[in-house]
Amino acid sequence: MNIRPTQPADLDRFRDIDAAVDSGQYLHVVRSGEGLELSVKVQPRDLRERLVQQYPLAEDVRFSIRQIAAGIDEGLALVTEHEDNLVAAMTAQRDHAAGVIRLLDLRVDFDHRREGIASVMMYQLIEAARTLELRAVAAATQANNFPASQMLAKLGFELAGLDTFALSNHDLVKEAVTLLWYFPIG
Q1: Could you tell me which residues come within 8 angstroms of residue 57 by beta carbon, excluding any fewer than 6 positions away?
Q2: 2-17+56-184 CATH pick, 3.40.640.10, 3.40.50.2000, 3.40.50.2300, 3.40.630.30
Q3: If pLDDT is split at 50, 70 and 90, which confidence band does 154 have?
Q4: What would the pLDDT profile of 81-137 be if each residue is shown by its tens digit?
Q5: Predicted pLDDT of residue 138
Q6: Beta bridge pairs of residue 137
Q7: DSSP 14-68
Q8: In 44-57, which positions are buried (b, 16+ CB within 10 angstroms) versus exposed (e)?
Q9: CA distance 16 to 86
Q10: CB 182 within 8 A of CB 101
Q11: Alpha carbon separation from 50 to 23, 37, 79, 89, 143 (Å, rounded)
């Protein structure tokens, strides 16, 4: 396995990475109270039926990857190759105003999961944040992407909040809440 910086030509090969989420669990979010008396409880629960969902690369993320790979925007874009095939990719973009680097996309091919590739790429991202003297690494996941949440928690990321309106006005009902994670630096 070889981890290297992403080149603009690599973008066409991203579609070869099978980034499907396969999980039997999700993070159930219960919100109670209102206004400033709001409380939230998050707990793992079993899904009624196994989730297998594709995550195609969004166009805005594709654009950001191209900008970072070309050196136009600040960030970190890495790919992992195995036998001349891309098996993983990770992209994060620096947010100067917030003093963080935001994980935009992390995908590991289904056949190469649980080999530590994502962890190594995330450790490189954390080290880059330290080198840049940023205050944190920020990430967002969906409540139904239990494997991503598990990985972030294992790496020491803290669940810092949620956004129930990121995808629609009914995300809590749809169990598609966006969870906000931070890895504090320093």
Answers
A1: 14, 15, 19, 65, 105, 107
A2: 3.40.630.30
A3: very high
A4: 999 889 999 999 999 999 999 999 999 998 899 999 999 999 999 999 999 999 999
A5: 97
A6: 101, 183
A7: GGGS---EEEEEEEEEEEES-GGG-EEEEEEEEEEEEEEE--PPPHHHHHHHHHH
A8: eeeeeeebeeeeeb
A9: 7
A10: no
A11: 6, 35, 29, 25, 14
Residue for token pair 């409880």: 41
Tell me: the pLDDT tens digits for 9-24?
999 898 889 888 889 9
Residues composing the chain? 186
Write the pLDDT tens digit of every residue in 43-55.
999 988 898 888 8
Given pLDDT bands bounded at 50, 70 and 90, which one contains residue 56?
confident
Amino acid at 73: D
Residues 154 and 148: their CA atoms lie apart, in Å, by: 10
